[in-house]
Amino acid sequence: MEWIKAKYDRLLVGLFGIIALLVGGLLVSKVLGFKNSNFKTRPDPVERNEFGTDASGKKLDAARALLTQEVKVNPPKTNSLPISLFASFPVIKSTDGKLVNVLDPNSEQLRPPIANDWLYKHDLDITRTDIADLDSDGDNYTNAEEFIGNTNPRDKDNAPPFSNKVAYKECVKDPFTLKFTIDGGDKEITIRRTEPAATAFNSMVPVGGELPAERGATEMRFKLTKVERPPGMRPVAHLDDLATKDKADDYKLELGAPYPLPTLRAKVVCNLGAPEEKVVSPGEEFSFAVNPDFQFLVAKVTEEEVTLEFTPPGGTEKKTITLKLPPPP
What we know:
19% of the residues lie in helices and 33% in strands. It is an alpha+beta fold. Among the domains are: 95-160, no CATH class; 176-261, no CATH class; 264-324, no CATH class. Strands 10-9-8-15 form a four-stranded antiparallel sheet, with no helix packed on it. Strands 11-12-13-14 form a four-stranded antiparallel sheet, with no helix packed on it. It has a four-stranded antiparallel sheet with strand order 18-19-20-21, with no helix packed on it. A hairpin with a 7-residue loop joins strand 12 (220-228) and strand 13 (236-241). The longest helix has 28 residues, at 8-35. It starts with a helix and ends in a 5-residue tail after the last strand.
């Protein structure tokens, strides 16, 4: 017993060593038995990378190759001219889908009558279809009128001439009809004003004599130059209009037939601000309330146009404008 006590610690170490050998052998036998068991072999794992599966990685590599591949790019064109990819041009699409270089003077006009580059230069929105009719600076002139007048649509103090706002709206015809009523020979020719009926009157004049346009007037309007009497036909009286020296021909009044000679006046309108209309006659001076210092003189009125003369306030040069009657709608 004394020996056991003296060797106690060594005996314990040896005992634990034997136990460890037994447990290790048991585990080895278990492992060998498990490996020899009839289990299906597990397939090798799919190789992966930081972007997913290997197939995804291959697609990424292909994309990388496209980024480094040299590619030829054909730049877009406008009016057969290439648009640089290294310079910025204002390019928009027209209504038919074409690309339009706004700064190209030969490009399609997008907002007629205004040029594209004029709109761009004055910072006006060319994409608006109504930009030509807008008044961008509040001076009562549209952008189209500013373009025609070559003025700044962004400067209220820089506007087109006032006369540009005056238009011929309507030709007013005052009834006036003459009639060759009696042929009493060259010394007794009767010409009657028949219209308007309230002011009708007769004038008996010899060939070479003159007659007025209004009853009791002292100013003579017409001159009877001759009377033709063709055989078998009605006599024809020839009248010169003393008020129209530039007439190429005289008036030919056939006996018994009315000859209309309406007095023409012009209805003109000023469209600066609220429209203001005036009916004026040849030789008349007039102005509009919006600019009373601007005086016009009616030089001539026809059914198609009216001619006005004026001297701008502060100016010395007399100017003439001809306003044409707009076509019927």
